[in-house]
Amino acid sequence: MDFLKFKQAVIDAAQKYGIKEYELYYSSSESTSADVFKHEINSFSSSVDGGVCFRCIVDGRMGYASTEELNAEQAESIVKRAKENASTLETEDKQFLVSGGEEYEPLTFTPYELPTTEELINTALAGQEAIYAADPAVIDGTSSGAQSGRQTIAIFNSNGLDLSYTNNIAAFYADAVVSDGKEMSNDFCVKSGDFKKIDVKEAAEEAVKNAKSMMNADVAPTGSYPVVFSHHAMISLLGTFSGIFNSENAQKGLSRLAGKEGQKIAADIVTIVDDPFYKDSAMPINFDAEGSPAHRKNIIENGVLKTLLYNLKTAHIAGIKTTGNASKAGYSSGVGIRPFTLYLEAGSLTEDELIAKAGNGVYINELGGLHAGANAVSGDFSLQSSGYMIENGKKTKAVKSFTVSGNFYTLLGNIAAISSEVKLPRSFGITNFASPSVLVEGLTIAGK
Amino acid sequence: MISREVCARVLAKAVSTGADYAEIFAEHSLNHSINMIADKVDSVNDSVIAGAGIRVFKGLRSVMASTVDTSEAGLLRCAEKAADALGQGTAQISIDLRERLFGDIHPIKTVPATVPNSEKVKILKDGYFAAKEYSDCIKQVTGTLLDIDHNILIATSEGIYAQDRQIRTRIAINAVAEKNGETQTGFFGPGRRMGMEMFEHEVNAKEVGIRAAEQAVIMAGAGYCPAGVMPVAIGNGFGGVIFHEACGHSLEASSVAYGTSQFAGKLGQQIAGPKVTAVDDGTIPNAWGSINIDDEGTPARRNVLIENGILKTYMVDKFNGRRMGMEPTGSARRQDYSYTTTSRMTNTFIVEGNDDNDDIISSMEYGLFAKSMGGGSVNPTTGEFNFAVNEGYLVRNGKICEPVRGASLVGKGSDVIMNIDMVGKNLDLGTGMCGASSGSIPTTVGEPLIRVSKITVGGR
After folding, report:
1. CA B351 to chain centre
2. B19, B38, B46, B134: least surrounded by Cβ within 10 Å?
3. Mean pLDDT of chain A, nearest integer
């Protein structure tokens, strides 16, 4: 049965089981992708998935159950299971559903048209040819691909809330592998957006250039240096540590920012913003996963922590209004908290000036092993890196296979300069991050 | 789940445009987890995953289509979509399905879905409060008890019609300790391909909590690890993650078939130290990463990957095996029906050697003993990896000295396995989730205590 019929079956079941406060969250996604290897389509896939999550408040507790099978049996089963699961819970946190009748900022974007299957395949093939054409060092093993998808989210609750959202996304990727006969190196470049505007050649050339630059790179020497994080590397750090701004983590002792709202936690030049309507966001949206209105806010303003990110439950505990940052990792997940598009505001220096200011140090272009080498609770990180040495204010030889170590909380205070261009966002799961390049004083590099 | 007759009709549709292979992977899974934080049961997740993925191959081309509609009409539509994507053509093969039964080498005594939440909560609390009450330094604990009942059906144009029911149970405790304003975490999360009987003899929930808390408390009092190149002894059990990342991923057909693996074209060559023998074995009874059949219907087996340092085989799935001219090795896996299957690991470990554990430590003048490893990642093309050391100690003059925090190990897979120069005698396995193109799947890593002669340690 389709979602509308299933919704009615759930409403009937909720009535049968005497449940008055409940929500039905529906998510469905379709995606098509084509991958190219050795100039030919190697694989093609077309998938449809999604499901519904039912949650209800029983005796003050919120029980959840979800399913991908939309039939009469499951409509009753999720209601029954959610009720039973609620009775297992012990948490005394007060639970809420959004009341109907909230005001939402209008969305001004129009979704771009998705590429046809033929356009998708042709783009993937053309991208591959552009990679091979970019440099004679490119070898087989190089791959490219294109992907398109549509996502629909709908939230319905017993307070009269009834929202839905659909958006399209399309992307091209180039994975260039280069070799000098002795050593291989690779780099990955992704461009997302309207296929009529994506420059496939530019993406292909960027991947090849980056892969080549790291071939036979030296290992950086061990020491303490000023470090310039490229916008790409800084996005990785912001993405990894954005959980420190999550009020639930703070309330549960998993973020050191608990109780620090209004205090200075970063250098004066640091302003960090969360904006659901960010101009380059792939998924601008005007409501969060509970159905609260989403809006733009400064998290850090000139070094001062203005607000953490809240949902209905954590805002109630803090005695404030939700910031509209409720999230779900997937339709079946519990409600958590996330930023929409989180970015560091631009500073005033060009990237060259930033590098000149570093004097002698290391320029880090890429960070790896983020899920392993970074501890989101303590803020400690020790991450695999690659980039360039900075000597006498200029980028010099390429370096790799070294780690950069520090602590993210300390790093916020040690940001000495920020470049003037916020680069395109990259997504970590469903959140986008964007950043300029930054200069940070005194980090430890472990290499040779 | 889906009858043999329906599967035959769907496969016939899938091969109708000239595919030389077609496969249905259908799934009906129950995922259940109970989570605790701040001393209370905070959430229960309970979901049904159901759908089917259909793959067709023609030569070196593969097409995958998935659907949540597993009615015959839904499956036929999905098969048609896959067949159409392959192009124009007529059927070249006919479908004749014979049911195949595989013995279950992973017996389950108590199916978790038949145990009430209250009983599971009691076990979780044992682990949770053992961690919380371990020390005054423990400021927060989170705990999860999860069970998965993963039912799969595979039907292929080669005639296979087979099913498997994969039940897994896991408890995971994460403890946060605070000393002098510094916070550190400790984690332990064992799991098995078992039901609730796991808690009767295999895993003691209280010990899980104590181990997580102990690690957090030790690390909260530790200074930072010094940076540099040094010998490193890596502890048994989850320490095997280093082999999994530094070497295992590069032995998967998904990178070997495309020539992008650091070990492509090296069969029969010395790629590791002569004391290293490494195995991927999906048949270990009731181990977390074990299977009866893989997600293409090939029976699980024990694959010796490296023997005395010599590369013996890769882990191969049907599609990538075509490029390599190799038979599948029981290594095809996917998170669920919406992912495209590829070659993955099951239970992967370094076999016990002849070195005494005491000799390994006493051989080190100055180095690091990485007692407990965290996660890691690798680029299979270059072999560059990065691991976090969750619990590490400095070794001076052959003695284990003070604990150090914030250490990571970086380097190149081909170098590090060549530099394994001592292999101890206390093989143990550790539980993990491995993420790659076909999704997140349960895998086991393992090793006895080993020594790597030199490795770059990131610290400060």
Report:
1. 17
2. B38
3. 93
* pLDDT higher than 80, residue A424: no
Q: Which domain holds residue B337?
A: 228-458
CB contact A360 to B (< 8 Å): no
Strand partners, B395: B367, B400
Residue B294 located in a structural domain: yes
Contact predicate B418/B404, CB 8 Å: no
| pLDDT (average), residues A96-118 | 87
Considering only CB atoms, which chain B residues are within 8 Å of A125?
none
CB within 8 Å: B460 and A40? no
> What CATH number does the domain containing B198 carry?
3.30.2290.10
More confident: A79 or A117:
A79
pLDDT at A429: 66
ipTM of the complex in this document: 0.84
Q: B49: nearest CA in chain A?
A: A68
Find residues 398-437 of chain B whose CB sits inside 8 Å of chain A: 405-408, 410-412
- Residue B46 touches chain A, beta carbons under 8 Å: yes
Q: Please give the radius of gyration of chain A, using alpha carbons only, rounded to the nearest integer.
A: 24
User: pLDDT band at A297, cuts 50/70/90?
Assistant: very high
Judge if B437 and B331 occupy the same domain: yes
- A425 has a pLDDT exceeding 80: no
pLDDT at residue B101 in the model: 87
Does the residue B371 lie in any domain?
Answer: yes
Please give the residue that has the higher pLDDT: either A427 or B69.
B69
Q: Quick one: residue A12, left, alpha or beta (phi over 0 = left, psi -120 to 50 = alpha)?
A: alpha
| Cβ separation B49–A74 shorter than 8 A | no
Q: Are residues B199 and B297 in the same domain?
A: no
Whether B157 maps to a domain, the answer reads no
Q: Assess if residue B93 is contained within a domain.
A: no
Cβ <8 Å between A92 and B408: no
Give A155 to chain B, closest Cα distance, Å.
18
For an interface test with A, which of B17, B23, B44 has the most A Cβ atoms less than 10 Å from its Cβ? B44
Q: Which residues 95-154 in chain A show a CB within 8 A of chain B?
A: 117, 139-141, 143
Task: Domain count for chain B, please give it.
Answer: 2
Percent share of chain A, pLDDT over 90: 75
